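Customer ticket, subject: "Can you confirm the structure for Zinc-ribbon family protein?"

Message body: Hello, I'm evaluating your service for our small team and ran a test protein. I'd like someone to confirm that this is what the system normally returns, since I don't have a reference to compare against.
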Amino acid sequence: MFIIFGTRGIKHTVNDSPVLSNSCPNCNDGNLVHKLYRRWFTLFFIPVIPLDVVDRFYQCDRCKSAYNENIKTVLQQSKQEIDENQKRAKQIFAKALVASMTHMSIIDGDFAKEEEREIMDVIEGFVEMREELMAIHEDVKVNANKDNRVFNYLSEARNVLSSEALINVLAQAAVVLLADGSIEEEEETLMKEYLIACGLPKEMYQTLIDKLKQKDMSKLKEGQLN
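Agent reply: Thanks for trying us out. I re-ran your input and got the following:
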């Protein structure tokens, strides 16, 4: 008999923490609910034993935007300060995303056109930052992680963004892994290093890949039906 065990992260609501009513900076009306990511030991894919808490954050119950725990302090600041913090978080998110995606695409020595297209699509989504993001893209494409620049972007993101936002960065970076149809050993190793740099367990790697593959399969089925 085979015994299948492992670990996985599960999101929980912190029941003894008050809800921040009508406080979401993104949609304005949503309530911010205190959440945590806890790693669980699994047996036959069933969570059995709770392990360490990976991160705590607030998530809007309406638009699902996620915020670092310091959002409570931010909400006490002026609207101008809130807008500036949101703008800075968006910039940090975009820089970390483009840098990690570009680095991931060149790590195997073969920068495929499918990978380039994925990165260009992301850059076009940040119109006001397009020039700066293109410069980051070209720099990493040529110099890779020289002076630890890519991991510095991720480190800055870790200090500002919630784990939910960090997972979003890495999930989009993982799209590059699958863009050319195969995952090289160098790409897998690098993605695990990204997870660690973001303060997330490297065991989340397989979860990210499985979800992306499921998403791709769903798109394929929808295309066949249409």
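A couple of notes from the result: Confidence is low (pLDDT under 50) at residues 3-7, 217-226. The chain has eight helices and four strands. Feel free to reply with more questions.
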